[in-house]
């Protein structure tokens, strides 16, 4: 099974992005915190990455729970994606994932989150060794 998403951005971080299926059509704006205009209604690559990573990670947790036949309630994942810059590293990202898995004790929820991060989630695999990713149960 394979799926390819396609998006095109014009004018970078202060431009516009659209997906080929037409479902995403967003104006982009550099946040004021990064010295940009922070235009109302404009998103940014970090927000889009946070949305994608949180959705993927939630699905990975559900997949692992299904493999292990662990019954649970709703899975909610919030993701904080931070962009920063230092003279040594230049620009870099860091992520904090906060999964909340209803109906499970802390140890079981942590186990599922760890397995999802280490073995299943494609975003976790892609970022491993490249950016700091922390998992903090909500």
Would you kindly provide a written description of the structure presented here, covering whatever features stand out?
- The chain is α+β, with helices and mostly antiparallel strands.
- The protein has two domains: 43 residues, N-terminal domain of TfIIb (Single Sheet); 91 residues, K homology (KH) domain (GMP Synthetase, Chain A, domain 3, 2-Layer Sandwich), CATH 3.30.300.20.
- The strands form two sheets. Strands 1-2-3 form a three-stranded antiparallel beta sheet, with no helix packed on it. Strands 4-5-6 form a three-stranded mixed beta sheet.
- A hairpin with a 3-residue loop joins strand 4 and strand 5.
- The chain is globular, with a radius of gyration of 17 Å.
- The two termini are 33 Å apart.
- The relative contact order is 0.14.
- The mean pLDDT is 97.
Note the main attributes of this structure.
N-terminal domain of TfIIb; GMP Synthetase, Chain A, domain 3; three-stranded antiparallel sheet; 32% helix; globular
Briefly, what is this?
This protein has 138 residues and is of the alpha+beta class. The protein is 32% helix and 28% strand.
Largest β sheet strand count, sense and barrel closure: 3 strands, antiparallel
Low-confidence stretches: none
Helix/strand class: alpha+beta
Distance between the termini: 33 Å
Strand order of the largest sheet: 1-2-3
Mean of all residue-level pLDDT scores:
97
Instruction: Determine the number of helices (DSSP H or I, runs of at least 4 residues).
Output: 3
Strand content: 25-35%
CATH structural class of the largest domain: Alpha Beta
Radius of gyration: 17 Å
Total beta-strand segments: 6
Order of helices and strands: EEEHEEHHE
- Name the CATH superfamily assignment of the largest domain: K homology (KH) domain
Indicate how many domains the architecture comprises: 2
Overall geometry: globular
Percent of residues in helices: 25-40%
CATH topology of the largest domain, by name, is GMP Synthetase, Chain A, domain 3
